[in-house]
Design brief:
Helices cover 65% and strands 1% of the residues. It is mainly alpha-helical. It is globular and about 75 Å long.
Length: 471
Amino acid sequence: MEGNEQLAALMTEAGFLREDGSVGLKVFARAVGRQAGRTYTHTYVRRWLDGTIPRDEPTRKAITAALADRLGRTVEQHEVGFGGPRKVSPDLGLAYPEELSVGVTVTTGLWQADLDSVSALLTAPVNVAAWNEASLSWLVSNRHDMLSYAGKRTVGPADIAGIRTTTELFDRLDGQHGGGHARRALVEFLRTDLSVLLNGMYAEDVGRELFRAAAEAALLGAWMTYDAGLHGLAQRYFVQALRLAQSTGDRLLGASILDAMSHQATFLGKYREAANLARAARMGTETAGSAIALAHYSAMEARALARLGDVAGCDRAMAAAVRDFERANLESDPAQWFGYFNESELAAELGHCNRDLGRAVDASTYAEQSLGPTPSGYVRSDFFATMVLADAHLAHGNVEQACHVALSALQIGEQLKSARCGTYVAEFQQRLSGVGKSPVVADFVEQARATTLWKPEDARKAPSRGGLPRS
């Protein structure tokens, strides 16, 4: 759809807009302003007609009220393309679209349903088959998408730069405060600003950069949704981000999305699927020339295999991660978005693996290396590594040290809105319950209860043996 054709049709029916769109914008702006008790200009109306959905509910209600007043009947928000009450299939977004245009429609539909708080999607479970279909479709695809489009809004390099700058801003917020902090604001940006550009006017070269930026932004939205604990919706966002990435021909970008899917699958206890997703990412990019990407894929595979208890397989994957990491040169690596995957992050991955394999000493060594003498700058990653260190101390019988470190993690977590952080804490609670009562544990629990992430024992939810850091 080019712009908001539903709104245009109703404005025409109500007499606010002629077919050529030459008059009526100011009149409609004043009518909406009277309903809302504020001032709007014709520029606002033009944006709405171009496809921008007002972010605030009072404006959306004022638009429908202005139309209803002129038409003499009730007008619902979904009639003007603003979402609202409507049925949305819980399977929306699970299928990997063959046609790119379908992918764009599905993705924008997911964003809108998310903003509308459609419970069928917010509470949807993950679907293992969707991971398998998406990874296989991406691996075998040889389709060339045409990325030129003749919409109304002309798209240029400045628009693409704006997408990237905004994505970087939200990425920083995510790392510092967790996915639950500004997730909805990011989805609003994607639905209002990005969707208009995807349906704009651009040539092939601009379109390729537009869709690359769109895939990166959609991937971040998936990450933040996953971190917020909305796993079914996050899975659907990952699948659609992968389709956007495929359209650009950037195999490394697509593989990084499979890598993220592996991340989520391990968190949810789907370890075999997680290992396969990491292997698919590596298989699809072995000749792409990115050692740092290969290192990360192997680390993700190792994380899944560690949870499975596959000691030999995990050791092989960890060794491969280290080998590829040591030969990486980030200055020339084509997957420079993995630049955050430094020595500290690699050590964190190895710490997780060794913890899950029951190697407490190795786990504590790597966790301490990850934390290092200098803060990483990634608050959530520091929290994860600190919790791994606490787990390792507990496994080694150092209860007092484990409690001391866990309390430090809980203090770090005070600024984070992350469901994954809560899972790490719940796992530590379970492990700590096996130690038995002691003055040390009692004192720790008393202090921990004052923190946001510590939940009462009767409210503790048993996690699915997962939890992976991303920075």
